[in-house]
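This is your field. Please look over both lines of this record.
***
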Amino acid sequence: MPYHHRILDDELDQLLESLPALSIEGAKGVGKTESASRRAATVYRLDDPSRLKLAEADPKRLLADEKPTLIDEWQRLPETWDLVRRAVDEGAEAESFLLTGSVSPDGGGRHSGAGRIPTIRLRPLTLAERLDRPTPVSLSELLEGKRPAIDGETSIALEDYVDEILASGFPGLRGLTGRALRLQLDSYTDRIVDRDFAELGHQVRNPAGLRRWMTAYAAATSTTTSFEKLRGAATGDDGEQLSKDAAHPYRTILERLWILDPVPAWQPTRRHLSRLSAASKYHLADPALAARLLGATREALLEDQELGPPVPRDGTLLGALFESLVTLCVRVYAQNAEATVGHLRTFSGDREIDLLIEGQTKRVVAIEVKLKRTIKDDDVRNLRWLQERIGSELLDAIVVNTGEAAYRRPDGIGVVPAALLGP
């Protein structure tokens, strides 16, 4: 299978020129090993039992071979982290060590290597990486605040976006269709339930309950549904409801596995706005996982059939999954630009902006996501409201949609088909 050039590849090339060690984190199957191994002279795969036994017998040998050295799935031998950290402290040269991990050791991605082993996130393939077509609208340029011209056309239509939602951004699944793809996605979920939880020391006594929890989370994609409503949506057909004591570990461990990828609420640094919700917006690592958990098909999404447990949402399930796909893309593009991503929602729920990308100057680009070909005035009212509230702190504002052409409206707000937005 040909290698998909990743946006992260450019980040790695830049960072490794200066850093002696770097950790790449993300869910299993996103391509961490493939991207890292292309830069390594020595590779230790600790998910291989024989390799792991050798490393356990003599951990220091991991540092002895030709550099750069990749230690893949390092968390299977946790002392690896401290060995590399000490090597950095002792003066390791730039581009000495790459580590990859599919588990956050403490649930928050913070560990003893702070200041010595920085971490970088790899997510599933974006549209720019999948489609391999020009992306004339650059998020990095929007973050410069110069209001660049917006133009370009695409032949990618609504049905194509639906196909991409279902096709998955996991590189190893690209090219699979039909039953083979469904089986792989089901197997991915099965591994989480049957093996990954146990490997983290949590025995799943109610596998059906965990699956219902994941399905409820999938149904809540792109919403800020409360924890209690989410727990209620995971109720079984027999009326059995998950206890809080069961549900909290599910959420914690799924976050550690990078399967849950919530977008935090944006916290403005200045006081132009008040009474903002602090709730995160739900997203799974890949919209295809959410779609598969809900049993979504192309026809069901296009016909807006009822799927999965009832969870309050504005709009259709397809709209929520399209927003999740765009969110995945924007987060990768934002990381490339050294920016962070949040969302905005007032306590009353009367104002909501899907994505706020905050650059290094703490000013923002605002993005609304609309499952529409044509954008009307009502679709940009929240963007206009934000402009009135924060003024020059708003670098730019765009609506990402499913249309054919990118352009700026007379009010200056950009309209950008998802396939034309890139890093």
Q: What stands out?
A: The longest strand covers residues 394-401. Residues 127-422 form one domain. The chain has two domains: 7-121, 127-422.
